[in-house]
Write a structure and sequence with these properties.
CATH topology: Rossmann fold
Largest sheet: 6 strands, parallel
Number of strands: 8
Radius of gyration: 17 Å
CATH superfamily: Alpha/Beta hydrolase fold, catalytic domain
Shape: globular
CATH architecture: 3-Layer(aba) Sandwich
Structural class: alpha/beta
Distance between the termini: 14 Å
Strand content: 5-15%
Number of helices: 10
Strand order of the largest sheet: 2-1-3-4-7-8
Number of domains: 1
CATH class: Alpha Beta
C-alpha cells in the first residue's frame, strides 16, 4: 500500500478530489488531501467569511506547507496535483520529495511564456483588478464557466460552481505571471534536475485556462533531464478534468502510471 497525497488548485478545496480518493482507496492506497493554509473550512464558511490571512498567502507558503506534510510521513508518498497543485507537485519533486508525481492541467513553472488567448482571458480578471496584490477574490460564475467547465451543460456548470468554488488569494496569480518573464521567480523548478523523482504531465485537450499546448511546452522544458518525464493528453477534457464525465479514465491512467513508476 502506498500513500498518495493529493494537492488541489486555486478556487477550490480538497473536495475537488472526491471522485479520485475513493478510486485510489479501492486500489489499496492510503489517501491524504490536505487543504492549503487558510482553506481548511467547509466551502460555505469560506464563501461567507474568507480567512483574512488568505490575502497574504503565496506560492512559497503553500509549497512549504506541503513539504512539511510530505516530510512528516514515514515513507515518500506518491503526489497528485491539479492546476496550481500540479505546479506545486513539480516544485516538490524538484526538491526530491515524493516517490513519483502526476501534475494534471498544471500551471506552468517559471520560464514558460503564456501566449494562448484562452489562458490569458481566464486570468485577466484577476490580474487587472486594481489594488489586487493582497486581496481575496471569488470568481464570477461566468469566469468559472469559461475557465473550468465550458463544455458541460448549464445545469452541470452551475452545480460545479456551487459545490466547489471558494474565494482565493490573488497573490499566487501575480507570482505565476511574474514567472512568465523571470525564470528565477518563486514558481521556478530546475528542469535539468537529474535526481528528480518521475513526473507525468497530464493535459486536457479542451482546457481553456491551461491549454494542452502550455502543458506540452512545460513537458519539453524537461528534455535535458535524465529523470523520467512523461506526457499524456486526454482529448475533449476541460480544466475540470478530474470532475467531468470520463474522470475515471484519467484516474485509472494516473493510478497505473504511479504504480509502475
Amino acid at each position: 500500500m502506498s500513500t498518495v497525497v493529493f494537492v488541489h488548485g486555486a478556487w477550490v478545496t480538497p473536495l475537488c478530489w472526491e471522485r479520485f480518493i475513493p478510486f485510489f482507496e479501492a486500489r489499496g492506497h492510503r489517501c491524504l488531501a490536505p487543504p492549503w493554509p487558510c482553506k481548511d473550512r467547509p466551502v460555505e464558511d469560506q464563501r461567507r467569511a474568507p480567512a483574512p490571512e488568505l490575502a497574504h498567502l503565496g506560492v512559497a507558503e503553500i509549497v512549504a506547507h506541503y513539504e512539511r506534510v510530505v516530510r512528516g510521513l514515514s515513507e515518500p508518498p506518491l503526489l497528485v496535483g491539479h492546476s496550481f497543485g500540479g505546479l506545486f507537485v513539480q516544485m516538490l519533486l524538484d526538491r526530491g520529495l515524493g516517490r513519483a508525481g502526476v501534475a494534471i492541467d498544471s500551471a506552468p513553472p517559471a520560464g514558460i511564456p503564456v501566449y494562448q488567448w484562452s489562458a490569458l482571458r481566464s486570468n485577466l480578471g484577476v490580474l487587472l483588478a486594481p489594488f489586487a496584490w493582497r486581496r481575496v477574490v471569488e470568481p464570477s460564475f461566468e469566469a468559472f464557466r469559461y475557465a473550468f467547465v465550458h463544455t458541460l451543460g448549464p445545469a452541470e456548470q452551475w452545480a460545479a460552481y456551487e459545490r466547489y468554488v471558494v474565494p482565493e488569494t490573488r497573490r499566487i496569480f501575480f507570482q505565476a505571471a511574474l514567472g512568465m518573464v523571470n525564470r528565477h521567480a518563486t514558481t521556478r523548478v530546475r528542469f535539468d534536475n537529474g535526481s528528480r523523482p518521475p513526473l507525468l504531465l497530464i493535459a486536457g485537450g479542451d482546457d481553456h485556462i491551461v491549454p494542452a499546448s502550455l502543458n506540452l511546452a512545460n513537458y519539453r522544458r524537461y528534455r535535458f533531464s535524465p529523470a523520467r518525464t512523461d506526457f499524456k493528453v486526454f482529448p475533449g477534457r476541460t480544466h475540470a478534468i478530474i470532475l467531468q464525465p470520463g474522470w475515471e479514465e484519467v484516474a485509472q491512467y494516473t493510478a497505473e502510471w504511479l504504480e509502475s513508476a
